[in-house]
Amino acid sequence: MRLIGMLDSPYVRRVAVSAHVLGLTYAHEGISVLRQFDQFAAINPVVKAPTLVTDAGTVLMDSGLILDHLEKISGKSLMPSDPAAHEQGLRVLGLALAACEKSVSIVYEGFFRPDQMRHQPWVDRVSTQMKTAYRQLEQAVADDWFTGGPVLQPAITSAVAWRFSRHMVGEYLSKADHPRLAALSARAEETAAFRAADFS
């Protein structure tokens, strides 16, 4: 398998970490959708990261769909099996992915739009959504994640999201206001799966 995309993307990184946790091997190709558009388009004309090229040569995109495929071929699940825990896991995933999406919106607003054309009300709206998602996620994360038990997708995506947002839009988020997320991220980054997908 080939995983295409930069590891500083939270969507690429959650796939890379998850593949490691699932015990799957892949070749990573750090091609940027921004700086290497044509090179990426030669692999996936839609130019969406992450892209996974399967062993059969099928091109898959969207981290959630790729993760579904990786779980299928590994025969393992990264979601809780208990229905109530699964429901809460989905809530956590929704919060973490919403935080990622709004963080990316802020990044793109600054990257693509000239200062004189930046629409501050839009930035204010998406930053408020991001901060709201992280406030709720701070209350939802478990203190025992990455302390030796099974590593599941809600924990992976929460840790990946927090590290990305702190790295890219850290001026909007205080570690002091999110001590549980900060601790979760610190523990996660010490694991083999996260070190294997480090982007610093």
Summarize the structure.
The chain has 200 residues and is of the alpha+beta class.
- Average pLDDT, all residues: 96
- Taken from the alpha-carbon principal axes, the silhouette is globular
Rg, Cα atoms, Å? 17 Å
Q: Which regions contain 5 or more consecutive residues with pLDDT less than 50?
A: none
The tally of structural domains comes to: 2
Number of strand segments: 4
The CATH topology of the largest domain is given as Glutathione S-transferase Yfyf (Class Pi), Chain A, domain 2
Supply the number of helical segments: 8
Q: Please indicate the percent range of residues in DSSP E strands (runs of 2 or more).
A: 5-15%
Distance from N terminus to C terminus (CA atoms, Å) equals 24 Å
| Name given to the CATH architecture of the largest domain | Up-down Bundle
Major beta-sheet overview = 4 strands, mixed
- Strand order in the largest sheet: 2-1-3-4
Q: What is the C-level CATH assignment of the largest domain?
A: Mainly Alpha
The helix-and-strand class reads alpha+beta
Secondary-structure element order, N to C: EHEHEEHHHHHH
Helix content: 55-70%
